[in-house]
């Protein structure tokens, strides 16, 4: 039951209708919780115990931690809870790789191993709601948050269906008070939520699936090396597809939450206008980066233990972000590359070049933006390819060093589509580099907004592209 399906639209309208009936607050809160569990069960009813397990362990761990006074006892409960949750996440997320590794080692050591390895299916959204619940427990441990007074409200926080499968990651501090007395949105908020949902669907259905996905599939899923032009266009198309797919989901989630009277944080802020990698990671997947900063980077000492320790902490965080996507060498290298980029940028800023302010003008900013996008494309090759061999093959082709006689090429129409979509996205991001979505809308006349939404709806209804599952459902 994806956002871009008629079944979901009907489901949401029913939930929204119940939410706006003159019912007691308790009933409307139960409506949200039941809706969230039904939505998750629609993917696979067997996932429900996992959602309940994560919710209950963090609920009781936070209660227990709050009652304890001793530092070591509180820390023991916290780390026990973290081990339970991350152990469950690791078993599902990396279990297949672990079994395969054990089979290989057992074979080489002459130890009997099963001939057929079981296939462990990753429950959709497990990473997101696990991290969300853990943030609550850690905040209670740090005494920056009081434990929730209602298990019902906490359950809504963990399972809130608009963000359940792919974020944005919520924080209990701002969200729990809204659960206590779920408010009804004003007509203006309903209109804003519907507009956000339309924009998110347009990004997913039209831009990601209709225009960019066919080119990405042709370049990355072919067994033949692409031409240099096709390699670069395919990689840039994937960067655009990944953004439109994930940001489209996040925008839909913001819109659905707004219709229900809730506020969800913005997860992307014009990332294609990023000038440098610190800037990029303040604009891309903002809630995950903030989670890693608050609960990993700062816990490791942040920047307060010297430059060398700060560089190590940055590398650890970026490797974890890479492995968060899956247990593969390609994801590890993706994270390591971004760690190197960030550390290299900081080192560059500490050289005399900083005093020269080469990038303080428009030309310098453009060159730095170009370098940022170029290096991002190199990292995206590892992010998209299934193994190092395919990544190497594509990189060799992109730099014109492929020796294959037959190569995958893109036709003029495919090149035109990718160019127009990416240039349009970059232009929009450059114009709203310092503005949030609501600020952009506030500056536009009503007829421009109405015309834009109408064209988006028209494009969505006419879209004939292959409907694909949201990319981040795999993480």
Task: Give a structural overview.
The longest helix has 39 residues, at 71-109. The chain contains 19 helices and no strands. The chain has helices at 6-19, 25-43, 48-67, 71-109, 126-141, 151-159, 172-180, 187-220, 228-259, 277-280, 286-297, 307-324, 329-349, 353-356, 362-384, 388-398, 412-431, 437-443, 446-462. The model has no long low-confidence stretch (mean pLDDT 87). Helix 9 packs across helix 17. It has 475 residues and is an all-alpha fold.
List keywords for this structure.
475 residues; mainly alpha; 19 helices; 69% helix; globular
Structure in a nutshell:
This protein has 475 residues and is mostly helical. It has helices at residues 6-19, 25-43, 48-67, 71-109, 126-141, 151-159, 172-180, 187-220, 228-259, 277-280, 286-297, 307-324, 329-349, 353-356, 362-384, 388-398, 412-431, 437-443, 446-462.
Beta strand count: 0
**What characterizes the major β-sheet?**
none
- Structural class of the secondary elements? mainly alpha
Low-confidence sequence ranges: none
How big a fraction of the residues is strand? under 5%
Order of helices and strands: HHHHHHHHHHHHHHHHHHH
Terminal-residue CA separation: 17 Å
Please estimate the helix content. Answer: 55-70%
Radius of gyration: 23 Å
Quickly count the helices: 19
Mean pLDDT: 87
